[in-house]
Amino acid sequence: MELILAGTIGILTACGVWLVLRPRTFEVAMGLSLLAYAVNLFIFSIGSLSIAQEPIIAPGRPADLLHYTDPMPQALVLTAIVISFATTALFLVLLLVSRGLSDTDHVDGEEER
Amino acid sequence: MDASDWHLIVVPVLLPLVTAAFMLLVGDARRTLNGWLNVASTAASLVVAVALMARVHLQGTSAVGVYLPANWQVPFGIVLVADRLSALMLVLTAVIATSSVLFAVARWHRAGVYFHPLFQLQLMGVNGAFLTGDLFNLFVFFEVMLAASYGLLLHGSGRRRVHAGLHYLAVNLLASSLFLIGVAMMYGITGTLNMADMARKIPTIPDLDRNLLHAGAAILAIAFLIKAAVWPLNFWLAPAYRAAAAPVGALFAILTKVGVYAVLRLWTLLLSTEAGESALFGADALVWGGFATVTFATLGLLASLEVRRLAAYSIILSSGTLLAVVGFGQPPLIGAALYYLLGSTLAASALFLVGDLIERARTGAAAEAPIRVEDADRLPFYLERMDLGEDTNLDDDARALIGRAIPAAMAFLGLSFMLCALLIAGLPPLSGFLAKFAMLSLVLDGAAAPVSSEGWTLLFLLLASGLTAMIAMSRAGVRSFWTPSERPAPRLRAIECIPIAALLVACVGLAVLADSVLAYANAAADGVLRPRPYIESVMSATPVPASGTRPAQGVTR
Asked: Is the CB of A98 less than 8 angstroms away from the CB of B177?
């Protein structure tokens, strides 16, 4: 499981970085969202990787991390998702405004000469 | 320490939030009412910040106020901490915000929608970032601050702002991703997000995790350094700040300082001299990064002719100097750096406002119109462009000068510009000179230890950047004030002059009261570099017992 998760994060990050470095605004937007996914998965994996473990304390089970998954990264990832979602939406708005103002989807607002 | 009587700490965060919500209820159409609400709220936050600073300072040696917003046991709940450094930054923010908003009420707030709520949310983010004692909470306040700054940067719209905003947004989204990765790594290693708790645990982490810790700290630092505009991560700053509306640019002068503050706070707290093997990890990177930034800013100053572009590069210059000096990691030196921070931030902020008025005086009411790029950025400055008419005298014929009164508005603008130039270049008698003198005399104090090569480089760069700043500012001054213009003297409104005057009077005040301000700054630097009282105060804060409250439960690792 560690290998699959690490590979996924790595591929997402690589694709994200490549897209962010592209000259088209839409590709940059896609790259930023892929990077956000990679970061969210990374945060999620930082607590502990476990299957079928709850983050909420139940009566009758000893309260340590052997019997539960760490709830903190899950809370963090929730916040991170919301924030990256909102800022990506704002980026899309700006992308459209820039397209409307300059009639090109180049990130600099003008084609390279 | 009882956390119950420190309700004052949460006010700088809550007041802007409540004001912004109330403004949304009032509606954006009643802009004048919103404007005066904004002025009242920022003035109130100035009062609160000063009260907080006085209270923290007079508390004695530990001088740390701790507040538990959710009333949870310390490592588990969010904690707000006010020490001398945070209080100082709060006061600086409030001073700059009050003058920016007064300036905006004159005309700029009509250039777009929702200026005032965004302005208040920006203040909330900045104040929260200065106060929080929790790493993830710091991320949240950073995002509040950035989200509001995206909106403010686009205030007034226009092609230039949209493109600068697009780059600004992309760069900051990347920085936020790095921030999150850094936070996650630090949490993974130490198992806590509370900064004081983390500082307590870092000396005891196993050697196997040490490299991971350094990687996490470095990634976190890069996120802050992007915000603090260190070279080579600062190419977004000058176009964005130049394109922003003048009061927004003036407020943005504090944003890079949030980055510098975060570096200073976390570096000295987590990797302090007591952090075992990790002590002062990355000091060289800070010093040399700062030097590179100062060099870049110096070249940028030389290459710019517009006043507001000069202001943007002076911000980079200021944060480069700060980072380099912080990297030396000595308490009195950092005290002098904090004193420099105050003066340079106020001056850059004033220069944005002055630059807007000068631009309007030169180009008429075109401030709201799209800026003509070809006119603004032409280099170099040709004599032919001065448009020598018949009544101009560049020779010794004084005929046309005699009896031509200098209009009061131009005199005010010229004088303010001159003061800003003195402050940024660091010439006597204002605070810029005192700050540079204090820093250099401490660096070159050879009694304790021989002056290092970093010390000599700092000396050279500070003097060279001061000289080039003076050249660049004089050139812009000549271009703005001494070239003939067919336009009549501008009509300035008192409400536009008061904020500029207030900022400059504050700078003069810094120079007059240099002794006590430096003493305070030294105490703040001492509190930052010897974090033991900070850590102990935070860790010993206890929730307020109340009827029906369960004791906090938590899972420790």
From this structure: no
**pLDDT at residue B44 greater than cutoff 90:** yes
| Maximum Cα–Cα distance across chain B | 88
Residue B546, domain member (yes or no): no
Residues of A in contact with B155 (CB under 8 A): none
Tally of domains in chain B: 1
Domain annotation covers residue A33: yes
- CA-based nearest residue to B56, from B81, B79, B83: B83
Q: Could you tell me if residue A112 is inside a domain?
A: no
The domain that contains A13 carries what CATH number?
1.10.287
3-state SS class at A75: helix
- The residue ranking higher by pLDDT, B373 or B465, is B465
In B, minimum Cα distance to A27 occurs at: B170
> How close B502 gets to chain A, by Cα (Å)?
36
Question: Does a structural domain hold residue B392?
Answer: no
Does this model's pTM top 0.95? no
Can you give the length of chain B in residues?
Answer: 557
| Set of chain A residues whose Cβ sits within 8 Å of the Cβ of B146 | 87
Q: How far is residue B273's CA from residue B282's CA, in Å, rounded to a whole number?
A: 12
To the nearest whole Å, the CA of A36 is away from the closest chain B CA by 7
pLDDT of residue B122: 93
ipTM value of the model?
A: 0.92
Higher pLDDT: B273 or B471? It is B471
User: Which helix (H) or strand (E) covers residue B81, if one does?
Assistant: strand B80-82
**Average pLDDT over chain B, rounded to whole?**
82
- Over residues B331-354, the pLDDT tens digits come to 788 888 999 999 999 999 999 998
Domain limits for position B166: 7-382+406-539
Name the region of B426 (left: φ>0; alpha: ψ -120 to 50; beta: rest).
left
Looking at the domain assignment, is residue A96 inside a domain? Answer: yes
Closest-CA residue to B256 (of B226, B281, B282): B226
Average pLDDT of the residues of chain A: 86
Residues of A within an 8 Å Cβ radius of B: 20, 25, 28, 32, 35-36, 39, 42-43, 46-47, 57, 63-65, 68, 70-73, 76, 79-80, 83-84, 86-88, 90-91, 94-95, 97-98, 101-102, 107-109
Asked if residue A59 is part of any domain, the answer here is: no
| A83:B140 CB<8 A | yes
Residue A76: list chain B partners with CB under 8 A: 136, 183-184, 187
Indicate if the pLDDT at residue B399 is higher than 70: no
